[in-house]
Design a protein that fits this description.
This protein is mainly α and 480 residues long. 65% of the residues lie in helices and 5% in strands. Strand 2 and strand 3 form a beta hairpin. Helix 2 packs across helix 11. It is flat.
């Protein structure tokens, strides 16, 4: 906030790109500490430094299109993985080299527990890799036999170094190119008295934790983001567990992967679409759509699951996928709208610093969302096992598991007794509870978002006493 976007992004480029370079050194020297320090610490610092400056700058340039400005920026941030993944894979393929293969039968000698064989007129250490060992590797074309220890290269170090240099150059170029508008800059023909456009009613970032609007908006973020992160986190196992047994010819591993891709598309498209919509209908109404729409979606998913299971309905499966994608588009939309909404409520002057504080709620959601989904699913599974045990004949249980039913608790703890195995000895007509293990999670998320809907409905304009005093701007040179 005090140094401007250029200095912040320049520092971010050195920290983020330097973090990759330090990690490359850690990989090359087999020092895991350097990897954590580089990619984890310095990379994380660079990520944080670079996140908000572009958002604030674009909002200041386009005050009448704050939603779209922040949405484009955050969509770009979220789509970075689409570029990073293929780039890293290409570089790994380019820089990797296979280990030196000596053959399937080689005369070896053993010294101090290590194997040695002759290669190129000298003795080198070798290792024997069988088919099982080779199957664990991501490389193809390797044969079972003896390989020279220390030969070959994964290419990871050079890949990290190349990406680090690329990020440093790209981010430094952005730092040079970016500039803030002059303090007197105004968009012609735009009414600056509108809350969605005004630039003078600014709340200093030091006062954010004193405002009820901050906590009300943050609560909405926590509950919606928890639902989205939780759904994304369990998407693949959910699809196979819930629908795999009912529609095995449709819900395959490839279908589950496609479902995850659909969620990713919904996430990215939602960041742009909802941001543009909010510029038309306003941030408050858009957030009402988010909260009340999410409540309806998550509360309806268990009913749709039941329809699929009972009727083997492909249409209901399509409805589940469609509503899930819509819910994730809302999740993405929340993140893209937040900076614009914060600018509407608290003014654009400190939106970068204010948004950094708001992301504390995002961190809370990252901890709560996936863990809550998994905890509730585990609780539902335990309840389902207890219910099945009450229906299973004791003699059948002992014949199946080799232990009396009094030992069920320890067998459950050891994962020996599962829902699937109990269904094998359950009485005829017993319904498999597996497809319904996530019902409690969906209902709980819907209930939590209801709280968010209530708190968001209570948001009112900030008391003018918190606004900074408007001082007459002195003539300042335009930032170049």
């Amino acid at each position: 906030q005090s140094t401007g976007p250029r200095a912040a992004i320049a520092a971010a480029s050195l920290s983020f790109g330097g973090g990759f370079l330090l990690s490359a050194i850690g990989v090359a020297t087999h020092n895991i500490g350097l990897v954590y320090l580089g990619y984890g610490m310095f990379g994380g610092i660079g990520l944080g430094l670079s996140y908000t400056p572009p958002i604030q700058t674009l909002i200041e340039w386009f005050p009448e299109k704050r939603g779209l400005a922040s949405g484009l920026t955050i969509m770009g941030f979220g789509s970075g993985a689409l570029l990073f993944g293929p780039t890293a894979a290409t570089l790994l393929s380019k820089f990797s080299t296979l280990p030196t293969y000596l053959g399937s039968t080689v005369q070896t000698i053993t010294e101090n527990g290590r194997l040695f064989a002759e290669s190129g007129g000298k003795m080198v250490e070798v290792v024997y890799a069988n088919a099982s060992d080779l199957a664990k590797l991501s490389y193809t074309g390797l044969e079972e036999g003896f390989y020279v220890v220390g030969s070959g290269n994964t290419g990871a170090a050079m890949t990290l170094a190349t990406i680090g240099i690329g990020y440093t150059l790209a981010m430094m170029a952005s730092a040079i190119a970016i500039k803030k508008p002059h303090p007197t800059y105004k968009v012609a023909g735009v009414d600056t008295s509108s809350p969605a456009v005004q630039t003078t009613n600014n709340v200093h970032t030091d006062n954010m934790f004193k405002l009820p609007q901050f906590y009300a908006l943050g609560t909405s973020l926590v509950v919606i983001a928890s639902g989205g992160l939780g759904l994304i986190g369990v998407a693949k196992p959910l699809m196979s567990e819930v629908f795999g047994g009912t529609l095995p010819n449709i819900v395959t591993a490839a279908f589950a992967s496609s479902f995850i891709l659909m969620l990713s598309v919904g996430n990215l498209s939602g960041r742009l679409a909802w941001a543009a919509i909010s510029d038309k209908i306003g941030r408050p109404l858009t957030f009402h759509i988010f909260t009340f729409g999410s409540i309806a979606i998550y509360a309806s998913l268990p009913t749709i699951i039941q329809q699929v299971v009972q009727n083997q309905s492909v249409a209901s499966l399509g409805a589940f996928c469609g509503l899930s994608v819509f819910a994730i588009s809302i999740f993405g939309g929340v993140y893209s709208l937040l900076p614009a909404y914060e600018s509407d409520l608290f003014g654009p002057k400190y939106v970068g610093a204010n948004h950094g504080k708001m992301l504390l709620f995002s961190s809370t959601a990252a901890l709560l969302g996936p863990s809550t989904f998994l905890y509730l699913r585990s609780a539902s599974e335990k309840a389902a096992i207890t219910d099945l045990l009450s229906k299973v004949d004791a003699s059948c249980f002992e014949a199946k598991f080799g232990s009396p039913m009094t030992m069920a608790d320890s067998l459950i703890e050891a994962k020996t007794v599962t829902v699937a195995k109990l269904m094998e000895i359950a009485p005829a007509g017993t319904m498999d509870p597996t497809p319904f293990l996530y019902d409690t999670s969906f209902y709980s998320i819907a209930a939590a978002i209801t709280i968010g809907a209530v708190t968001h409905s209570m948001i009112r304009p900030v008391n003018p006493k918190w606004y900074e005093k408007v001082e007459e701007l002195e003539s300042k040179p335009i930032d170049k």
